[in-house]
Amino acid sequence: MSLFSLDNKVALITGSTKGIGKAIAERMAEHGAKVVISSRNQDACDEVANGIIDKGGEALPVACNINYPEQLQNLVAETKAKWGKIDCLVCNAALNPFFGPSQEIPDAAFDKVMNANIGSVHRLCQLVIPEMAESGGGSVVIVSSIGGLKGTATLGAYAISKAADMQIARNLAVEWGPKNVRVNCIAPGLVRTDFARALWENPEIYKATVANYPLRRIGEPDEIAGAAIFLASEAGSFTTGQTIVIDGGGTISS
Description:
single chain, alpha/beta, 7-stranded parallel β-sheet, globular
């Protein structure tokens, strides 16, 4: 069997109707996984799931707003009702409603970032990991950001939340490793997604960013998906508690 095979695996991926999450879902399906497509919009979920099914894959579309615990519970329940288990949880959905100095962020926006980017990861792991452990193990992949590794003048609350995601991975890796549950983070640099559009569409920001990237370009969603497949498959079976940085070399040169 291929080291990277996901045959008979069930992968639940939040924020998977566009960008990095969509790329992860589509590529995991190509490697044999049954994938759950989730975002706030049911039509968008249906569209991505149908595209995977049309190519011979298996996909379940379930709308979910990660800000609401009851919707997270429903997401997990519908997945288990359909396929009976979850082998891989990918926590990709996140938000950032404020761009600017952290001292200026409104309280409501700060709380929203923390609840969505940290709280939803924590709650999903509480919902999924115990049964994952009972079934013999599994993999959790949290999509963090290099923002969690560096100081920033414009993405303060978001960066704080992404640093916390890395610590969630370390804590849960220690807690659940004896039950063969592995928990890791991926920390992308600037990637061409709608979420990061304000950064890569701004010529000045783009130029300043790629000037510090040894590869002299930003990333594409598919270039993140490969790491998620590695972490979910047998190829990553001895990797846990880690943050894999995929940033074109940006953090080692700036």
